[in-house]
Design a protein that fits this description.
heterodimer, A: about 725 residues, 5-stranded mixed β-sheet, 18 helices, about 30% helix, about 25% strand, B: alpha+beta, 5 helices, 6 strands, elongated
């Protein structure tokens, strides 16, 4: 989005709110730019705007990027507050309903992901705040008959240029609407920021430490029933029959029936539904079920890698023209399937009545949730309302709307509200996973000089699994019988009408090191295990492959891994800067404690440059991570503390994957079930973390995910330095 | 048969199957939603409450086992509008990210400080390590607990090193 060149008046609409206050609506450029030839006409009632100021001095900001821990609730509100010149705490935040106005302009869908929230809101939300402020100032100036340019604002009032007189924003809203905006509304220079760039508390902290924040699982409605599902242990299996009469005879059980995604059991209390679930006996029809076992996935990947060189996604110079074999080094890296394991298990609540359905759900993509519910009912998307709650973690899992499909399929059979809650075991076994991936790396060293790099990525791509709901969500007025067609068209039109799916190759095609011959290939093969985005997505596996292989090459060249990387980054100043800073802060090259070793990695993702140095040891046969030093360049910083938390959180998320993360299958069934066999990093295993944020004037970039990718290879490289054993498969083994 | 217990100082009578986990009684019968369901197996600590002053995993504590007991949940940790020192510290340190595990984290920390007002770093970690957080708020949790410990301790004692440290350029 060409933010700074944008004419702000073009996307800002000022009107009177139902409250009599001032309403500012943003229409983001890019929302309607899918170039499909279709009109952006949803025919929906649009009651909501982004910013509403009322006569009684309430300021209401509609948050269109869900809060799942990453800090949008605080960060985006601060963007508005800064320009409106009010403390962020003064602003009431409400979660956005589904509306085309709230789509993420980078995706054309109303979703929160890809570490894009601040980057995509940076310009328009500050412009909204600045525009509202300017209108209020002009209204005050007219009241006082003074020049607007001489008036100032402070904490929700306009201050008279000559004296103590002030007018509250609330006193001015009915006048402000009459004022006009210039083509370009100036934004505050950084030197005048009061809230941006400063450590500030989280606006949702009070609600979250008192138990008052409402997550999806907390939704409670009068007469609400509880549902649990019994799904095929093997993906693709279907229930043929079950002991329905037995279940119906159990206390509190209201109904039990077969749906598209399994058997639903509905009861008056959650525990009664759960007990009925224990008593179920099902005959499964497994004709369409997957049967993947153990090493089938990687055996299949190896075969595919050999049979199919893959689609070339980048080719500099000519890798194949280099002399074959002599001086070429190869390595193969494997990464398993991973679950998201959000602390709040999947859940959703629905109420179907009077030709309408209301959904309450912790979802990263409410417009996709609406399509999911429409599929399972006789309703069109316009007849479905989605209320978004706080999310107890997302990490990409809640971009897939299967749990909303389930609750909708249940709700249409009832005339009361119903809440579906997944157990932890179901969450682990019926989720959509980070794909398992195989990487075949080949490189040519001529002496110490790296002259060739050939990276073959083997595995599925996420769009294949996602497009089913995403394509119809972009055209919600389309008749439902077209949904499957739209899904297929979405896939066929990949790279044309829809953005190219880079989920398998991101972080590999943008290999930053200066090497004359570089080729990156993707061999597309899919074992049929359901997948979705997982915090840092393709970067999570490509980061491991690229930065581990770089470390291997440094050792082959007899070079220091730091100097080896640095020597290939003359043209990449931002990469170089974070690498140098991390090395300096970590004391790279300095002596260290007996039995410990350091490893490093450098990786850019979501526009953010991150270098990390990990210090590790092996004690009593277990890997111990002592310290992680991280330098990060994410452009301008909205809230340094939240940046630190996101980067530190990403580091711990990555370490969980490096040390424990592995989902395995046997005859199509996922073997893990709960936190004892899919472990999360506990507090006593968490290292000391030092974070160094580069002071920058560049536009802000993502921070929710970029902490994850480099910590995995940095730890593996430290273990190699310690033991001489190269870690080529995740999770690591001591 | 109704089972009586005291929740946040209020005597309540619950008519539910005796094997119903306390968690669902709190959440669905008493509408105290601050205590969270995480794993259903006592593995993550999101459902931590106090039973007669001791921390308990309410997801795997049957109602019949707490008949007559005094239960404290996150909603009852502080009295009136004044927050518990740990809740204040959690806000000051900006601990919560998604926030889902934090009720359990705070209840675990509250019991620790009630029984040991000046725990060492090792004691804090050894106690809190049973409460999982997927967002990675551990460093801030340690800092928040230690800030309260600092308030409890005599002035002049040096605070522990902050677990997430910021580096200058």
């Amino acid at each position: 989005m060409a933010g700074s060149e944008m004419n702000r008046r073009d996307f800002l609409k000022v009107s009177t709110a139902a409250s009599g206050g001032l309403l500012l609506s943003l229409s983001l450029p890019g929302c309607a730019s899918l170039d499909t030839g279709y009109q952006e006409d949803t025919g929906e009632w649009r009651p909501d705007a982004w910013l509403e100021l009322t006569r009684d001095d309430r300021i209401v900001f509609t948050l269109a990027r869900v809060e799942m821990g990453q800090g949008t609730y605080t960060g985006l509100t601060t963007l508005v507050a800064e320009e409106l010149d009010v403390p962020p705490e003064r602003i009431d935040v409400v979660f956005a309903p589904v509306d085309a106005a709230y789509r993420n302009p980078l995706f054309g869908l109303q979703l929160t992901g890809g570490s894009t929230s601040v980057a995509s809101s940076w310009e328009p939300l500050r412009a909204a705040g600045a525009s509202a402020r300017l209108l209020l100032v002009k209204a005050a100036a007219r009241v006082w008959q003074v020049e607007a340019g001489r008036c100032s604002t402070r904490d929700g009032v306009v201050v008279h240029p000559d004296g103590p007189d002030v007018l509250r924003y609330g006193q001015l809203v009915h006048l402000a609407e009459q004022e006009s905006l210039p083509a370009e509304v100036p934004l505050k220079p950084r030197s005048e920021w009061r809230y941006l760039g400063r450590d500030r508390g989280r606006l949702d902290a009070h609600a979250k430490v008192t138990g008052q924040a409402q997550y999806g699982i907390d939704v409670d409605l009068p007469g609400m029933l509880y549902a649990v599902m019994v799904r095929s242990p093997r993906y693709g299996g279907n229930p043929a029959s079950f002991n329905r009469e037995t279940l119906l005879g159990m206390p509190g059980v209201v109904d039990a029936f077969i749906t598209e995604r399994g058997i639903a059991i509905v009861a008056d209390r959650y525990w009664r539904a759960r007990k009925a679930q224990q008593a179920i006996e099902v005959t499964w029809d497994n004709r369409e079920a997957i049967a993947v076992s153990g090493d089938d996935v990687f055996a299949g990947y190896r075969q595919a890698a050999t049979d199919d060189p893959g689609e070339t996604e980048r080719h500099d110079g000519d890798v194949e023209a280099l002399p074959e074999y002599e001086g070429w080094l190869t390595a193969e890296y494997e990464q398993p399937y991973l679950a998201h394991a959000t602390m709040e298990p999947m859940n959703a609540t629905a109420w179907y009545r009077d030709g309408h359905m209301e959904i309450w759900a912790p979802t990263q993509a409410p417009d996709l949730g609406r399509i999911a519910a429409a599929r399972q009912s006789d309703l069109s998307p316009g007849e479905i309302t989605v209320h978004t709650t706080f999310l107890g973690g997302g990490f990409g899992r809640r971009l897939t709307q299967d749990y909303i499909e389930e609750v909708a399929a249940i709700a249409v059979r009832l005339d009361t509200p119903v809440k579906l809650i997944w157990s932890r075991e179901e969450d682990m076994r019926h989720g959509f996973l980070r794909p398992a991936m195989l990487h075949r790396m080949t490189a040519r060293l001529e002496g110490e000089v790296l002259t060739g790099w050939d990276h073959q990525i083997v595995g599925p791509q996420i769009l294949d699994w996602y497009v089913r709901n995403a394509a119809p969500a972009q055209y919600p007025w389309a008749p439902k019988f077209l949904y499957d067609t739209l899904g297929k068209v979405g896939l066929a039109a990949e790279g044309i009408a829809t953005p190219k799916d880079i989920s398998a190759i991101e972080g590999a095609v943008d290999y930053p090191y200066q090497v004359p011959n570089v080729r990156v290939r993707h061999t597309h093969t899919d074992p049929g295990v359901p997948i979705t985005w997982w915090r840092s997505v393709g970067y999570s596996h490509n980061g491991f492959a690229v930065e581990t292989f770089m470390d291997e090459l440094a050792h082959h060249a007899g070079a220091d891994p730091y100097q080896f990387r640095l020597g290939l980054l003359a043209h990449e100043p931002r990469h170089r800067q974070v690498l140098e800073r991390a090395a300096r802060h970590a004391g790279w090259g300095e002596p260290q404690a007996e039995g410990r070793a350091r490893g490093m990695a450098l990786f850019k993702s979501f526009g953010t440059y991150v270098a990390q140095v990990v210090e590790a040891s092996v004690e009593y046969g277990e890997i111990r991570v002592h310290r992680v030093v991280c330098s990060v360049d994410c452009g301008q910083v909205v809230n340094p503390r939240i940046v630190e938390d996101q980067i530190a959180g990403g580091i711990l998320f990555g370490l969980t994957a490096a040390l424990y993360g592995e989902i395995t299958l046997q005859q199509g069934e996922i073997q893990q079930s709960n936190f004892h066999d899919y472990r999360l990093l506990p507090m006593h295993q968490a290292p000391m973390i030092k974070i160094d944020i580069v002071d920058s004037d560049e536009p802000p970039t993502g921070v929710g995910e970029p902490g994850v990718p480099p910590v995995i290879p940095a730890l593996g490289n430290a273990l190699f330095a310690l033991t001489g054993n190269r870690q080529r498969r995740l999770p690591f083994r001591a | 048969m109704a089972i009586r217990l005291t929740v946040n100082g209020q005597s309540v009578s619950i008519d539910a199957e005796p094997d119903t986990p306390l968690l669902w009684v709190l959440r669905d019968e008493l509408k105290l939603k601050g205590t969270k369901f995480g794993c259903g197996a006592g593995l993550c600590g999101a459902c931590t409450v106090h039973v007669n002053g001791a921390p308990a995993r309410s997801c795997s504590t049957a109602l019949e086992l707490v008949a007559g007991a005094e239960i404290t949940t996150i909603e009852g940790l502080s009295s009136g509008a004044e927050l518990h020192p740990l809740q204040k510290a959690w806000i000051a340190e900006g601990v919560p990210q998604c926030g889902y595990c934090q009720s359990g984290q705070i209840m675990a920390a509250a019991h620790l400080l009630a029984s040991n007002p000046s725990p060492s770093r090792e004691e804090v970690v050894a106690t809190m390590t049973g409460n999982l957080c997927r967002c990675g708020t551990y460093p801030r949790i340690i800092a928040a607990v230690e800030s309260v410990v600092g308030q409890y301790q005599a002035a002049g004692q040096s605070p522990a090193v902050t677990p997430v440290a910021r580096e200058g350029a």
